[in-house]
Write a structure and sequence with these properties.
Number of domains of chain A: 2
Strand order of the largest sheet of chain A: 1-2-3-5-6-7-8-11-12-13-14-15
Number of helices of chain A: 5
Strand content of chain A: 35-45%
CATH superfamily of the largest domain in chain A: Autotransporter beta-domain
CATH topology of the largest domain in chain A: Lipocalin
Distance between the termini of chain A: 70 Å
Helix content of chain B: 40-55%
Oligomer: heterodimer
Shape of chain B: elongated
CATH architecture of the largest domain in chain A: Beta Barrel
Radius of gyration of chain A: 27 Å
């Protein structure tokens, strides 16, 4: 156990401060607070999450009054641009009978899943859609009930989970997008629970009996609203409701609670960290018991080079032939990097500037406006100033390379002319650029 | 002396290998970049800001030609790649927004764009 914590902490600490700013995709998809979104981790980018949850004031049941606290470790990694592997190891850290003071520790199920994004709103689709399929391997004791959430399947029971996920941007703001997330799905157990079934009248609930197996089908749905806060963080309010197929299990642990309703809040920042917390207040009318959960997760920002990938989408419809409008010319300098927060050109960018200078020297009659552009990180005024200082630095370097000073003027455009979305690191990298515009 | 010759050969072989890697990588990078532009154009079309004036609606968006050239220059220590294409401002008109959306786009401005990239640490940088 110590080793697991050590690895988790090392991963957390090791990942801090990797540089590029990018909102991580959701991690710690435990089904507790953070509901899955259609975000897909970029290829080879990992994310990890740790969640702690437990029952406060447990009810007296047929098996006693049992306090249960869990830790969940979640790990995900992008496999393809639209495919992500996700896994989760629920662990019962402490289980205690209030009356007898007996306690035991046990490991829960291992959840292995794949999430595939079918539609992406960023690519022009009306909304984003994804499918999540997971297999839960039972690893623990057989007599412990399937506790409390879809990820924590105990005992020798195995289960399959299928879930549909929809994301829709409701409002675009300068701080980011306000997004609605909807989930719906079910969990299919392939072995009998060992408990008698007392109530089969709930909606969305079926039970199939076979010669060797009993299938319970809990149905759940969830809704989340993501609201951007400033430009480096966002909050998500989430609601999750679950109809349990096997009410007998719920009876054992939570009284006759037919459904479970969670509300929670999640804050995430661009450095990859997210914290979330929430509680099950028994919105169905059962105020006791209630649960708490809190977690921290981390997704590595986009420091890895973008993987070349084939664009599978159809090209845009061919526009009508241009009516020979007057043609302007511009040169876009890519990969001209500056020291952080400064206008000092880094030495690795010199080759690009030298190429631009050669092009300008081949056309000595052309006057050029050097325009600096930034992404939207930081305030508008700051970006305006920074873009101008950087444009001036490029101008100075071009003069140093032999371009006549009277041919060059500078303009700082700040974040006012993005060419791509500022919501992704890839888009922000496209927006950070210097353009040389030939004046007519 | 033998050591110097060996080192020179090593540097030469490494440079040739780097240039080869950069050239072949640039072909796929170039296609990927044009794919980004196509996605950008689709986004622009889907997010046209319509201007309604005296019973008619007008909107503009930026598109990109699919015709392009990709060239790599290895003259310097750092390979330089260039992608050249045209950026075109299109305009759409109509009595209503749905009409304008369906109307053919008219090119009103064209810019020849040369994007310059450099190759560093095994990848094309932007």
């Amino acid at each position: 156990m110590k080793r697991v914590w050590a690895v988790a902490i090392a991963l957390l600490v090791g990942g801090w401060g990797r540089g590029a700013l990018a909102f991580p995709t959701e991690t710690g998809e435990t089904g507790l607070v953070t509901i899955p979104t259609t975000d897909i981790l970029p290829p080879l980018r990992p994310s990890i999450g740790i969640t702690l949850d437990g029952i406060i004031n447990p009810p007296q049941t047929a098996t006693g009054q049992i306090s249960v606290y869990h830790t969940h470790f979640s790990l995900g990694i992008g496999l393809l641009p639209n495919l992500e592997f996700t896994s989760e190891i629920p662990y019962v850290q402490f289980e205690r009978d209030v009356a007898s003071h007996r306690h035991t520790d046990d490991i829960g199920g291992l959840r292995l899943g794949l999430k595939y994004r079918l539609l992406n709103e960023e690519n022009g689709a009306p909304l984003s859609a994804a499918l999540l399929g997971a297999f839960v391997v039972g690893t623990g004791r057989d007599d412990f009930p399937a506790v409390l959430d879809r990820a924590t399947v105990f005992g020798s029971r195995e289960a399959y989970e299928v879930m549909g996920i929809l994301d829709k941007v409701l409002l675009k703001t300068s701080q980011g997008d306000a997004t609605l997330t909807l989930n719906a799905g079910g969990l299919f157990f392939d072995k009998p629970s060992g408990f008698s079934v007392e109530n089969q009248s709930l909606p969305f609930q079926r039970r199939f009996r076979g010669p060797n197996a009993t299938f319970d089908v809990p149905f759940e749905f969830a809704a989340g609203l993501k609201l951007p806060l400033f430009k480096t963080s966002y909050a998500r309010g989430e609601f999750l409701n679950e109809f349990r197929g096997n009410t007998a299990i719920v009876d054992q642990v939570e009284g006759a609670l037919p459904t479970r309703d969670f509300v929670g809040l999640r804050f995430a920042n661009v450095y990859g960290f997210a914290v979330q917390g929430g509680a099950d207040f028994g919105l169905s009318g059962f105020l006791d018991p209630y649960r708490f959960f809190a977690s921290i997760s981390y997704a590595m920002p986009a420091t890895l080079p973008p993987r070349p990938r084939r664009i599978a989408q159809a090209p845009p419809p061919p526009p009508p032939p241009p009516l020979a409008p007057p043609v302007k010319t511009k040169i876009v300098l890519r990969g001209v990097h500056f020291d952080f927060d400064k206008a000092t050109i880094r030495s690795d960018s010199v080759a690009t500037l030298r190429e631009a200078a050669n092009t300008l020297k081949e056309n000595p009659a052309v006057r050029v406006v050097v325009e600096g552009h930034t992404d939207s990180m930081g305030t508008e005024a700051y970006n305006q100033r920074l873009s101008r200082r950087r444009a001036e630095a490029v101008k100075d370097y071009l003069i140093k390379l032999g371009v006549a000073a009277d041919r060059l003027t500078v303009r700082g455009m700040g974040e006012s002319q993005p060419v791509a979305s500022n919501d992704t690191e890839e888009g922000r990298a496209e927006n950070r650029r210097v353009e040389l515009l030939a004046q007519q | 002396m033998r050591l110097l010759v060996s080192l020179a050969c090593l540097v030469l072989v490494s440079s040739v290998a780097l240039a080869g890697d950069a050239s072949s990588a640039f072909n796929s990078f170039c296609e990927e970049w044009m794919g980004k532009l196509a996605a950008r154009e689709r986004y622009n079309i889907a997010n046209i800001k319509w201007d309604a004036k005296s019973g008619s609606v007008t909107g503009e968006y930026v598109g990109y030609t699919q015709e392009h050239t990709c060239t790599v220059k290895n003259a310097d220590k750092v390979p330089i790649g260039k992608i050249i294409y045209r950026e075109i401002v299109y305009q759409k008109h109509g009595g209503t927004i749905p009409e304008a959306e369906k109307s053919p786009a008219e090119a009103i401005e064209a810019t020849e764009v040369t994007e310059i990239f450099r190759y560093s640490a095994g990848k094309w940088v932007y």
